[in-house]
Amino acid sequence: MSEQYVAAIDQGTSSSRCLVFDQQGRIVSVGQKEHAQIFPRPGWVEHDPEEIWRNVLFVVKSALDQAGLTAGDLVALGIANQRETTLLWDRHTGKPLHNAISWQDTRTDALVKELGGAVGQDRFRESCGLPLATYFSGPKMSWLLEHIPDLRRRAEAGDVLFGTMDSWLIWKLTGLHITDVTNASRTMLMNLNTLDWDDDLLSAMGVPRQVLPKIHASSEIYGEASGPLRGVPVAAALGDQQAALFGQTCFSVGEGKCTYGTGSFLLMNTGPQARPSTHGLLTTVGYRIADQPASYALEGSIAVTGALVQWLRDKVGLIGSAPEVETLARTVEDNGGIYFVPAFSGLFAPHWRSDARGVIAGLTGYVTKGHIARAILEATAWQTREVVDAMNVDSGVMLTTLKADGGMTANNLLMQFLADVLGVPVVRPIVAETVSLGAAYAAGLAVGFWPNMQSLRANWHKAAEWLPNKNGQDREKGYRKWKKAVSRTLDWVDDDD
User: Fold this and answer.
1) Tell me: the pLDDT tens digits for 113-126?
2) Distance (Å, rounded) from C-alpha 396 to C-alpha 85?
3) What is d(CA 426, CA 458) in angstroms, rounded to the nearest whole number?
């Protein structure tokens, strides 16, 4: 029998990609195409759903052509997607009724404050695990229903469909209106315990139940694709960060991954019980395999990590390329006593302080550009430590190993410092495309291409590992100084700013 493969569509914030994987989890081919970022007003960010669909068709064909494959060589297709981005389309014509509102969009700020009322941002946290924020899909949908003429009447009549990007692509591929539990858990409309749409949440947001997709597992056969993928089972969907968790095979309680990019997202598997956070984290669904119980996760988001290196390159000019930051940082033995807190637009997890602004603390005449470069790298590690500490408390389990992926993992000095400040091993996998790999794994699992989750673990291989070598006293002294530096960032923004 000829070799078979699994494909994954990764529909991201700035581009769509299709990756083809073999049975060993190795990348066979990649197709990628960017889409336009639409900015109608300050703070508004939109995408054209039809452009994204055309791009998806393009990257699928590109990936198959590169590998000399046809749809007949694929046993399954999985989808990973930018989370929270929201769109509505006509049930009968399939035409979008508005541009998709990106997860980055802040137009719902006033609505979010109104929804919080006297209780504030935690009004719905017990039900959905999320604080009220412009980030999530429910308020975006509520905004669309109120601001597009005649849309609410049509929605209540059953003529309108809602979806995040996974639902849009599955509908275009199969004609089915569904989503998976990971994406549903980011809408603020799903009850974390029942894994179904919550009537109280729907009522509060003014969202008619009939517009919502049916919630499915992350790994199961949804239906067969049409078009260029005709006959291929569409068998998985996960939000991108949950897909990375799955691709990193974080299947046991206490296992976690962090994706290091412009910002960073750390997820820890907390097992079959949703763990409420009292330390600034999000409670979310990690994944669900077929009819098995869901696995939950705690998530901590860090706003500025790789973006700080970009700032050093583009705004300050101390380096000419991102990799040069490691070379510059290695010209010194330590940070020279300085700490750089990159609260450029406030602090995210675990602080959630929009009034904070960035600081460099501890400056003396001794400090060189090498110390600044080192402090910039260390800032990513210290921010990770804050999130891990919050996770350890909220979850009741200790992180045992951090599986790291993303562009910053090429920085060996940063990876070693991460291991030092966390006090646990940090490992980087051979296949760094963990979002796409996770979607492929979940799809292949659904069709029996991989027999079980143990076989996926067997596919996972580390490319590098860093073990902690800093003694505990030095680690805690550095952490104490970091927290002092963080305290200097707070209350900077005044009412008249």
Assistant:
1) 899 888 888 899 99
2) 32
3) 19
Please, what is the end-to-end C-alpha distance for the chain in angstroms? 68
Contact 425, 465 (CB under 8 A): yes
- pLDDT at residue 234 tops 80: yes
Give the pLDDT band (50/70/90) at residue 206.
Answer: very high
Q: Model's pTM, two decimal places?
A: 0.85
User: If you ran DSSP here, which 8-state letter would residue 68 be given?
Assistant: T
Amino acid at 70: T
Please name the residue that has the structure tokens 């700490």: 339
Minimal CA–CA distance to 169: which of 102, 232, 237, 107?
237
Sign, Cα dihedral of 164, 168, 173, 178: positive
DSSP calls for 33-49: EE---B-SSTT--EE-H
For the chain, the residue count is 497
Among the listed residues 382, 347, 350, the one whose alpha carbon sits nearest the alpha carbon of residue 476: 382
Rounded-to-integer distance, Cα 159 and Cα 372, Å: 57
Nearest to 197 by CA among 141, 206, 124, 187: 187
**Per-residue confidence (pLDDT) for residue 332, from 0 to 100:** 96
Q: Cis peptide before 139, with omega less than 30 degrees from 0? A: no
- Picking from 51, 153, 59, 151, the residue whose alpha carbon sits closest to that of residue 99 is 51
CB 98 within 8 A of CB 88: yes
Q: Are the C-beta atoms of 25 and 37 separated by less than 8 Å? A: no
Q: pLDDT digits over 306-322, tens only?
A: 888 988 998 889 999 98
* Cβ–Cβ < 8 Å for 296, 275: yes
Report whether pLDDT(399) > 90: no
- How many Å is the Cα radius of gyration of the chain? 22
DSSP 384-402: HHHHHHHHHHHHSS----E
Q: Is the pLDDT of residue 446 over 90?
A: yes
Distances (CA, A) of 16 to 11, 246, 447: 4, 20, 24
pLDDT per residue over 53-98, tens digit each?
Answer: 999 999 999 999 999 999 999 999 999 999 889 999 999 999 999 9
pLDDT of 1 reads: 39
* Whether residue 135 has pLDDT greater than 90: no
Structure tokens that stand for 223 in this block: 């239906």
Structure tokens at 306: 């790789």
CB–CB of 413/377 below 8 Å?
Answer: yes
Q: In whole angstroms, what is the distance from residue 63 CA to residue 29 CA?
A: 5
Helix/strand/coil percent split, the chain, to 5:
35, 25, 40
